[in-house]
Design brief:
This protein is of the alpha/beta class and 398 residues long. The protein folds into two domains: 5-236, no CATH class; 253-396, no CATH class. 57% of the residues lie in helices and 9% in strands. The strands form two sheets. A six-stranded mixed sheet has the order 5-4-3-2-1-6, with helices on both faces. Strands 7-8 form a two-stranded antiparallel sheet. The longest helix is centred in the last third of the chain and has 26 residues, at 311-336.
């Protein structure tokens, strides 16, 4: 059964919380992290730090909305939660983080507040903070519905000074700072000091699964969802050991350099002609060449080592890739019958995009770790004219 937008958004929101928890746990100054206790994610710092706790509200958005605009109910709900925490433990040295998977307008009040607090190391001039308070107060008076209820309760319960004090501790974490998920994961990798010889994506997925299972297990027993950072370090070491003890290794991308002269040598190959037929742009073609070369180099290395995966293993992988390609091709050819304006190039692009899904493949009985193993194999098959993207590829390519 397909998830509706609301359900999908809720699921993504919970998963986003776990990713943020891994980020905080990976930092050396964090003692433990709690999920869904006082806040979405609460990080307790080790003793001797300038602050004690970091409270974080995580908002994962599936559409184009800004969860922290002055008129958004999420912002006022967050203020309500944080003001209550601040009043309960007034002497706690804390920071409050607004986190979202979306970019937030740099002209908004929260972005300006973040910049002021970040650049001043949380010593923003009180007059500047009063200006932010006034902006929010003015916006609050125009609110409706649930957001207005939060605003009215805040005004009735907390003083101007308490609100301004909270504003002085708020910072923003958005896709403005991590423009893609890989950059976010790269910081976690660096925090955990994981070397380039380790297949990080595989280790990360195992860490993520472990964290979700551990927290859900604790919730099921009525316990708080709390994890010590040292536990993450221990489990990380276990998964690294497991990955490196595989009978064969798919090298990290950084361990297989691709040079410009090698790229140039591929330009007349058939797999490039296949991509040209579906009007792939220059960046897509460069990526395809890199995947093709890395997969080819790895296959050569495996053959030289004389270990698994052997040619039979690679043949089985190619059969799986071809089987999936046939399914995607059939689906899109059927769908195209009801889309008379869809060009053949665009139809081919859809087949190519779906065929490029790297999930679920195994090689020699082990899950494939590196995306280039699958993506490169696609182009190797395409180069052999075993598969193609454009609906007329068999007649267009001579």
């Amino acid at each position: 059964m397909a998830l509706g937008k609301s359900a999908a958004g809720q699921a993504l929101g919970y998963l986003y919380q776990f990713e943020r928890a891994i980020f905080w746990l990976s930092r050396s100054d964090i003692d433990f992290v709690s999920i869904e206790t006082d806040d979405d994610v609460v990080s307790q710092l080790k003793s001797g730090q300038e602050i004690n706790r970091i409270y974080e509200q995580d908002k994962s958005v599936t559409g184009n909305g800004n969860p922290f605009s002055n008129a958004n109910v999420n912002l006022w709900k967050t203020f309500s939660i944080w003001l209550a925490i601040q009043k309960r433990v007034p002497k706690e040295k804390a920071r409050f983080v607004l986190s979202t998977n979306k970019r937030v307008s740099t002209t908004g009040t929260i972005s300006k507040l973040h910049k002021a607090n970040y650049t001043s190391n949380y010593k923003t001039d009180n007059k500047i903070l009063e200006g932010f308070y006034n902006d929010l107060y003015e916006s609050g008076q125009k609110l409706k519905g649930k957001a207005k209820e939060y605003y009215d309760n805040i005004v009735a319960t907390y003083s101007r000074e308490e609100f301004i004090n909270l504003l002085s501790k708020i910072i923003l974490s958005t896709d403005e700072f991590y423009p893609d998920r890989n950059k976010f994961k790269e910081e976690i990798k660096n925090n955990l000091r994981i070397g380039s010889e380790v297949p990080f994506n595989s280790v990360y997925e195992k860490i993520f699964g472990w964290l979700v299972n551990d927290i859900i297990g604790k919730w099921a027993k009525g316990e708080e969802g709390t994890i010590k950072s040292e536990k993450l370090i221990d489990i990380k070491d276990v998964y690294i050991k497991e990955s490196l003890e595989r009978p064969f290794l798919e090298q990290a991308v950084s361990a297989i350099p691709v040079f410009d002269f090698e790229r140039t040598e591929q330009l007349d190959k058939i797999f490039i002609k296949q991509l040209t037929l579906i009007e792939s742009d220059d960046d897509e073609i460069v990526d395809a060449i890199d995947h093709f070369l890395r997969a080819s180099k790895e296959r050569d290395r495996w053959a030289e080592n004389g270990t698994i995966p052997c040619q039979e293993d690679i043949n089985e992988l190619e059969k799986d890739i071809t089987r999936n390609w046939k399914g995607h091709k059939k689906k899109h050819l059927i769908d195209a019958k009801s889309k008379p304006t869809l060009t053949k190039a665009d139809l081919g692009s859809l087949i190519y995009i779906d065929s490029s899904n790297t999930n679920g493949y195994s090689l020699a009985g082990y899950p494939v770790i590196q995306p280039y193993t699958i993506l490169g194999s696609l182009h190797i098959l395409s180069d052999k004219l075993s598969i193609g993207w454009h609906p007329d590829w068999q007649t267009e390519i001579k």
